[in-house]
Design brief:
By secondary structure, the protein is an alpha/beta fold. The protein has one domain (15-232): TIM Barrel, CATH 3.20.20.70. Helix content is 42%, strand content 15%. It contains eleven helices and eight strands. The chain has an eight-stranded parallel β-sheet. The model has no long low-confidence stretch (mean pLDDT 95). Bound molecules: SN-glycerol-3-phosphate.
């Protein structure tokens, strides 16, 4: 079975535009709460016929991936092969846990460029998808050269503020789309930071993004399903 075949199969549920929910390490996404959030994402994806993927907390990745049909991504992986590395998370373990891929280089969990290169290339050989986070257009351009599945641009100063990048800093979104697609045409470009409602999502898509990456807008919402339905209305 070739890598190409597996990648195509694994892209089921990853049609763009896509909403990717990173539940981070919030108390609201630990254990059963995280599973509940994943089930809500699954429900909304199926009711509205949209692509929603989730990045569960690492400890619960296997549990969530085996309980929902939507694609799951790890929140991080370490640049090491399986071996004597206490506490590290390998790509092989991410795959075994049932994830379709992993986020890398989140601004809360930065990596060195050489590590990103190692991880993107090893993930591809394992049939795993990589969503590499970046903080600006220049870094997005550098990462695009590594040919990941996706680049997700997130200005750190807007993360968790409720001030949507697609409205507050539209140029970083449109310029990243342009820069990334010039280098790696089929790359899925996401934007994130402060995205909380359907209008924010619509603005992102109008700027050329293939989807959004968000956390607090759903995880910290009083009613996560209502928040997700609102977000999806922007697609
Ligand atoms: O990974 C998504 C994240 O960094 C954006 O966070 O809370 O602004 O949606 P938030």
């Amino acid at each position: 079975m070739g890598v190409e075949w597996r990648l195509k199969e694994e892209r089921k549920g990853l049609e763009t535009p896509i909403i990717v929910i990173n539940v981070k390490a919030y108390a609201e996404s630990i254990g059963q709460n995280g599973l509940k959030l994943a089930k809500i994402c699954e429900e909304v994806a199926s009711e509205r016929g949209v692509s929603i993927a989730i990045c569960p907390q690492q400890v619960f990745l296997a549990q969530v991936a085996s309980s929902v049909s939507i694609p799951c991504f790890a929140q991080h992986a370490d640049a090491v092969p399986p071996g004597s590395f206490t506490g590290f998370v390998t790509l092989e373990a991410v795959k075994e846990a049932g994830a379709v891929g992993t986020l890398l280089n989140h601004s809360e969990h930065r990596l060195k460029i050489a590590d990103i290169e190692f991880l993107v290339s090893r993930a591809a050989s394992l049939g795993l998808l990589t969503i590499v986070c970046t903080n600006n257009v220049r870094v997005s351009r550098a990462v695009a050269a590594l040919k990941p599945y996706s680049v997700a641009v997130e200005p750190p100063e807007l993360i968790g503020t409720g001030r949507a990048v697609s409205k507050v800093d539209p140029a970083v979104v449109s310029d990243t789309v342009k820069a990334v697609k010039e280098i790696h045409e089929e790359c899925v470009v996401l934007c994130g930071a402060g995205i909380t409602n359907g209008e924010d999502v619509r603005a992102a898509i109008e700027l050329g993004a293939d989807g959004v990456l968000l956390a607090s807008g759903v995880v910290k919402a009083e009613d996560p399903k209502k928040a997700l339905l609102d977000l999806v209305s922007g697609i």
